[in-house]
Amino acid sequence: MADALCGIWVDRAGQVHLAHRATADGVCVESEVALQPFAWLDAEPAAELLDGVPLQKLTGDGAFMWLARPPSLDAYDALIKRLRGAVAVDGVRPLESQHLLETRQRLFADVSFAELRRCQLDIETASSGNGFSDATLPDDRVLAIGLRFGDRDRTLVLAEPTDAAEKAMLAELNAVLAEEDPDTIEGHNIFKFDFDFLRLRAKRLKVPCAWGRFGQRANFRRSRLKVAERWIDFPRCDLPGRTVVDTFLLVQLYDITTRELTAFGLKDVAVHFGITSVDGSDRTYIAGNKIQDAYASDRATFLAYLADDLRETKGIADRLLPTYFEQVRTFPITLQEATLRGTTGKIDLLFQEHYYHAGRSTPAPPEVKPFEGGYTRSFQEGVFKHVLHFDVASLYPSLLLHIGRNPKNDALGVFIPLLKQLREYRLRYKQLARSAESAEERAEADARQASFKILINSFYGYLGFSGARFGDGELAAEVTQRGRDLLQALIEELSRQGATILEADTDGIYLSTPEYFDRPEELLAKAAAILPAGIELEYDGRYESMFCYKAKNYALYDGERITLKGSALRSRGIEPYLKRLSDSLISHLLGVGGESPSDLVVRFRDEIPALKTPVQELAKTEILSQNPDTYEKFIATGGKPRRASAEVALQMTPRPSMGDRISYYILPRQKGQTSDWQRARALDAYDPMMAAYDPKYYLKKLDDWVKRYEPFLDATKLTGPEEQGSLF
């Protein structure tokens, strides 16, 4: 192994602490260098504002044509403060990225993913209250800290329920992390639960959170992450020289494009990825309110449950982390920033690096006007057999290379050569993923090609983003227009070959063709013949059946598993009993079988009025889109609309945060109540005697579900007992 950079941290004095893995046994060697800070300015400041800071005029006519080079971090901070309001400043944050950019270094450049020193962490806690652990309560202790290093578990277990024993266990955690020296610490919801809980217990017991490298403690701060259209608030934890990986956040980022997950909990995701079987026969389960009892009376089961949590966490990280690991070998960025930062900011760093070392001025982000998106259309409704999926390989990047024009403000001409280089890397590793000798080499190559695929596809999105320094809305609009034209030409050709087009979305086409189902390559070759040079059509899979519901909403069955696409079929906010109905209906439509949707409807119509359906099957779960305190102020000033989940959050102690999941049910209507939010109660507050759910409300939702799927249901089996045969 070469001298590989595996950790970096910049202290407040401006010293860059580096951890290099330079020995065969993987031990890190630490070193220090001084940070060489810099910042771009859009005008030459007055001499008194510069206060002796060296200033370099850059070539080109970009908006930021001056480069300031303060001699120290203190001088850098002082300069930024003096320039506030006088000139625009464009800097690089965090400072670790600034050092990597300035020195053209990359983390883990000579380390394979298999050589990454990884740790999975999961804790189990006691509860003295209503079933939820509260780290601020004296007796809600940490019962165990599960740690996995590779295939070794080092589980720390509370010796006895005392402050002294818990304090010793927290101190032992510090010692184990220092001894094992992991590059990453991975956990599912580790920011909001595990590390935050450990922080509060450590504070109570006066134990330092010495979890970082270079003898440093953890740093905590409030942060937020944008996931598609919503924000998630979380207490971020930064460990100098190490990376905290929260797989709970990674699965939500993953689902932005796949739209396959119906829940983000550890056990749900583990089943989705095949880490744990659907029936759960290969893992130990303990109900949340029974964990403390298992610790006390069934230690073997308790430890097996914790070990399975670690195994599932590792399995999820094995699947999702390699993409980000490969990104840090491409961008001047830390691994933790890679997992929490948008793609636009990463691509900007590459451009800034090229312009910085070329001594060239950089542009300000241009305004990008709205433009028409990709081609999307649903052609059919119903169930179809013998389905093939074709897509155009990296459609937009390929079109960009075909056009061959850099963004208007890319004076250095970086965009197209960089895109071409990344595409060549991707093709090289894609080939290695098929031909490498060992399974480990093939997996490594596949992770790299997948990462580069994401990167090159992001170049198009970067062009159309108003915050991108080198954005170009006109070029992005031209690319989408050509993409629409190309996809329509493919649809016409495939139809001419006898295929029934089912669904088209941006760069892919689903079609039904009994003739070519067992020889898709023949149909692929005929359709690909109409494409321009450099644009490739790929066969991306076949399916026994497909349920087309409406545009961008469909279900696929490949003979082993069902995949749902679109929010109409897989809304995470839907009540469990309705989700169960939808899953049953889709399973039957696709020919998979399972429980009958007709029988389910009849059963729910019998059980709900008798309050026999468990409230957990009826309760709705939503993710808070606003902090409760902010919502409360919004309502106090007359803000509307009022939302059931937000109202329930106001009832809870402690109050949850934006991004948390809230489960609630609806009480029977009282006089004067006109809206659902007035009747919403937290699921944990359910009382079948004093505060039961409203049967009429849930029966009405059941009837609405039946009507929505009327074209696909057998009406004679789904009618109510009073009006047999007349529901529709």
Automatic annotation (TrEMBL):
The protein's name in its UniProt record: DNA-directed DNA polymerase
EC number(s) on file: 2.7.7.7
InterPro entries cross-referenced by the UniProt entry: DNA-dir_DNA_pol_B, DNA-dir_DNA_pol_B_exonuc, DNA-dir_DNA_pol_B_multi_dom, DNA/RNA_pol_sf, DNA_pol_B_thumb, DNA_pol_palm_dom_sf, DNA_pol_type-B, RNaseH-like_sf
Chain ranges passing through the membrane: none
Domain DNA-directed DNA polymerase family B exonuclease residue range list: 112-251
Enzyme class: transferase
Molecular-function GO terms, alphabetical: DNA binding; DNA-directed DNA polymerase activity; nucleotide binding
Domain DNA-directed DNA polymerase family B multifunctional: 412-706
Catalytically driven reaction(s): DNA(n) + a 2'-deoxyribonucleoside 5'-triphosphate = DNA(n+1) + diphosphate
SMART domains in alphabetical order: POLBc (SM00486)
Highest taxon above the source species: Bacteria
Coiled-coil regions listed in the entry: 422-449
